[in-house]
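Good day; I would like, with your permission, to put a structural problem before you. A protein sequence and the structure tokens that stand for its backbone fold form the material at issue. The record follows directly beneath this note:
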Amino acid sequence: MMTLTKTIFLHLFLVFITQNIFAQSGKVFDNLSLDSKILQGERKYAIYLPPDYESSERSYPVLYLLHGAGDDHTGWIQFGEVQHISDQAIKAGKATPMIIVMPDANTGKRGYFNQIDGDWNYEDFIFEELIPHVEEKYRIKKEKRYRAVAGLSMGGGGSFMYALHHPELFAAAAPLSAYIGPLSIEQMISRMNDSEDHSETELKAYFEKHNALSLIENMDKKSLQSIKWYIDCGDDDFLYEGNSLVHIAMRKKEIPHEFRIRNGGHTWTYWRESLPSVLEFVSRSFHQ
């Protein structure tokens, strides 16, 4: 028979193990950087590593999570509570353990795209430098089926563009309260301070490549269908119209997608409430 001392020891040991399992949390590093030849300088990014990253040798799917205008790579950490929300979703079994990469698109010049004049090619930096860098440095699965992109506002627009420009790279895209770009070429010209420096042909070509509605209309249907889409925007959001038009365009083209309109505006409260659903959605795409 087990002695009382052994019984107590075993009980305490089990309590210790249980507490450590449930206390396990992911880690966030918010001051990482790499040297960019394309952007000619140091570029910062943040990363979330799931709770079991250090105790395992497995590789993980990856979510590229983009911030909005006015924030930087720490936005989703500071205001979006990405660590707490991701830990809770993983512990609850609603999200698969994943690595989350958050780049900085608010230093030097603001935005996720290549500029029309070719002086700031941020999108090239993402695909030619950042993605290869993090996918070599961390244990990240590199196949399309294990890669997703999401973001809010300006980052929602980046999510649309990155998935639409590279459908061969992303299994899922989840734009939140997305700025989809000017809704017409006339609107774009009126907003560009240097439009007089570019011909109408140049402006039209740039507009068509950076407007979600134009890309959806002109892209191959099979490519669009190869991505799992999750579009979410508040009913009081000033970007509601653009997101609704994307939904309608996808319906007309018979592109399967999730479209969510919830009560709320263009706020961190709304996006924090969106993030658990985004993590669950992209996790399902990783398990397709």
In short: The chain is about 45% helix and 20% strand.
